[in-house]
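I am still getting used to backbone structure tokens and would like to learn alongside you. Please make up or recall a protein chain and show it to me in full. Would you write everything just below, so we can both look at the same thing?
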Amino acid sequence: MAARLLLVHSPLVGPASWDAVAVDLAGRGYEVGLPDLTGTLAAGPPYIPRQAETIARATAGRPAVLIGHSGAGPLLALAGALAGITVQGYVFVDAGLPIPGQSWMDTVPAELSAQVRDMADAQGWLPPWSQWWGDEVLAELLPDPRMRQDFAVGCPRLPLAMFREVHPAAPPWPVAPAAYLQLSEAYEDEAATARKLGWPVARLPGHHLALLTEPGLVAASIRELLGQLR
């Protein structure tokens, strides 16, 4: 597909999480954009419509494929509806699927939602996602100290209200072809749903942040899935 590729980062991390994959794809002739959602966090609610609008504006009215990682996945349906016919396809990379009428808190195990609530300070702010799981877990995912530091610096503080916010309804979706790239076991259910929907699905054995540690493999898998979006 000749459409521009918009690599959308999870609101829980920074846009630099896609940098290495973007370099690989651009080096192979793709036009790549990296919408930045971090500015949507400081303005207060509603967060989700503002994030979807940021993604839609990044199409600049031109044909685009929206490629979302992790927490960006639930934003893609609304972003696609706002962007209209300019969206030519979707690729979910170890990402949640759209959840209209539900909040993030509604879709995760009770233990995780309780953990997140307990991390909030008196003003309703959570620590950056890079601090949620402890230093040892992050070091296991990102063994290189410089890479780990750069990633952590790019992760913003997060408003608890964003996780409680109900995702607005979107028109019937998807109105363009979609595909799924699974990186970790945590997204087995989403990959299974994608298969049931008849989407192309690829599995890259690795971990959730493989787009940082294995950008060439992630980019190659994305290219393969793009070839199946018809």
